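tokens incoming
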């Protein structure tokens, strides 16, 4: 498969992907908010779900669905607003539950917090990843430009390039999450700090949802 995409194209796409990924967007800010509110395990689970959601977008673009989203203002707007509403919902929930963070932190340290909640966290991260407007536009408008159609196997080339993007995103988001979770440990020394960090995490997600809803379509 690698022979279908030249080294120059692969490196150029990786560089452009890196530039897009390192600038905090919906996915990064959501991971940070989740790390501050729930800790390292939740952050990394969110990253995994987020990455899976982003790769679904790659599959959609590779097999033609992405072009519909990119060309239809109605579909794009509906998807964007759905993602924004979900972020606001998660932010409100985190804000309302900020008072119980001390118990949640104790469970996170002891390992007692594992189980069904992890699966729910994964799917919440997935929902954010698959409705990320920045990623949708990048895959629909930029990804096809790096495909060498003369080599054939266009879908396979897109899948490979999308994999490169997601590996970079996985590493970057994990670093953001771990750094934020480490800062959460400092806050955990005081109940008031824990309440504060829960509020910050919730407000971050609410603000992010509002930002996503207000973000215009770039044609």
């Amino acid at each position: 498969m690698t022979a279908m995409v030249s080294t120059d194209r692969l490196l150029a796409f990786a560089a452009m992907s890196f530039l897009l990924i390192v600038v905090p967007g919906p996915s990064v800010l959501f991971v940070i908010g989740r790390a501050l509110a729930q800790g390292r395990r939740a952050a990394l689970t969110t990253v995994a779900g987020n990455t899976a959601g982003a790769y679904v977008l790659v599959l959609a673009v590779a097999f033609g669905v992405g072009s519909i989203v990119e060309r239809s203002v109605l579909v794009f707007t509906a998807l964007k607003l759905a993602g924004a509403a979900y972020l606001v919902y998660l932010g409100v929930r985190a804000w309302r539950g900020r008072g119980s963070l001390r118990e949640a932190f104790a469970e996170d340290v002891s390992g007692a917090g594992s189980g069904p909640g992890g699966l729910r966290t994964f799917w919440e991260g997935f929902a954010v990843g698959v409705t990320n407007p920045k990623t949708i536009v990048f895959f629909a408008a930029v990804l096809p430009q790096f495909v060498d159609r003369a080599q054939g196997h266009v879908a396979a080339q897109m899948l490979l390039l999308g994999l490169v993007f997601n590996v970079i995103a996985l590493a970057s988001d994990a670093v953001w999450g771990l750094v934020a979770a480490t800062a959460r440990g400092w806050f955990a020394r005081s109940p008031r700090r824990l309440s504060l960090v829960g509020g910050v995490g919730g407000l971050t997600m609410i603000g992010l949802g509002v930002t996503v809803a207000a973000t215009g379509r770039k044609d």
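note: DSSP finds ten helices and no strands in the chain.
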